[in-house]
Fold this sequence. Notes:
The chain is of the alpha/beta class. Among the domains are: 2-101, no CATH class; 193-377, Rossmann fold (3-Layer(aba) Sandwich), CATH 3.40.50.300. It has 16 helices and eleven strands. Helix 10 (242-253) links the parallel strand 5 and strand 6. Helix 7 (176-185) crosses helix 15 (382-395). The radius of gyration is 38 Å and the shape is elongated.
Amino acid sequence: MKMKRFKATNMRTALAQIHDEFGDDAVILETTNLEQGVEVSAAIDYESTDFTQSTTSAIPATDIGGSIDYSAGDDESCFTLGTEKRPVERYLSAGQNGSTSEPSDKRMQRMGEEVRSIRYLLEEQLSRLIWDEKARRTPESASITRNFSRLGLTEEVVTQLIGGMGDLRQLDNMWTTPLTHLARSIPMRNKDMVFEGGTFAIVGPTGVGKTTTIAKLAARYALRNNPKDIALVTTDSFRVAAREQLETFGQIIGTPVYQANDSKELGDLLHSLINKKLVLIDTAGMGQNDVRLAGQLGCLLGAEVEMEVLLALPANAQTRAIEGILDAFKIVQPSGCILTKTDEAGSLGGSLSALIRSGLPLAYVTNGQRVPEDLHFARPRSTWLVKAAVELMDHSSTTSNGEFLPDYFPEHITAPKTKEINIHACA
Length: 427
């Protein structure tokens, strides 16, 4: 082991001398404050056990802690060192407070997080200031935005609805008039397709109630027409007892049930049923992310038979889930949709938003399991849907003070809480 004492006017100069003499592997053994500066003992090529034995008596126990303490005179005049082996280069990079420099990548990451946090706080405060100012200037927009947001409508749809109402100051009522506009904005099929007859395929994700809906549609037709003019077809070869369930409905209604396993069988079967006035096709229920979905939908596209596709949408699903279903099934170009499970929904704002956003006409609405009583033609039910959405809003625990609105509706404004209005006013 090679040892040497170095004298300098301050600690940084002494460390530089040690680095020049011994290199990066030098170890500091002892430091002593002098009248004219500092004296540092350093060594190289040592054994840690020998170092510990030879220096324990020289270094007070209170100094063995691994900390660095710049004190007398110059900020870099002295420090104490524990038993850990520490290369000189670590002390050369130390700041004036004696702590080892933080790695640059971690330091930049921490600084980035702090900047993002400060930016978020500034944006939030600025947003609220802007909203407060706009609320004073356009209280009509604030009131309508608040009410629509409580219904569960999305930001995009709220913006679209408010933009389509013209001068808000000319509205007769800030509650019932916007609700009427909302009801008129829901796209609807003008005619009851089932009574007109034709070939219809019902598609949708699993658990949405397609088979039960087909039974309701068939029973609805059978109430006014001959049940023998109806044919039920299933392409569901995945779900256990899928055909048996449809056959049970067929026996009750008095209509036959057929099976098709691929597009060729489906095409041949539909050609053979050309004399039937109403043909309803039940498809396998698959999630929008299921890799088998494309093959199931390809069965319909490959049949090369004229048919209309109706998409079953669950009203009790969240907005993003409904929008995902619409995107996944748009490949079969549905001409309309059926809103199911409205009786199980906690809010109708998500489904109404998805319908308005997509523009897909609503053909039927279901609100229960009864066949066919719980299936309704949607056109006369637009006001009923909005009324149901309002009733669900009042029974929900959603906050109504408008404090959350700046984060979700940046194009609009908040307003002070207004008095409650009769929820049946829109009926």
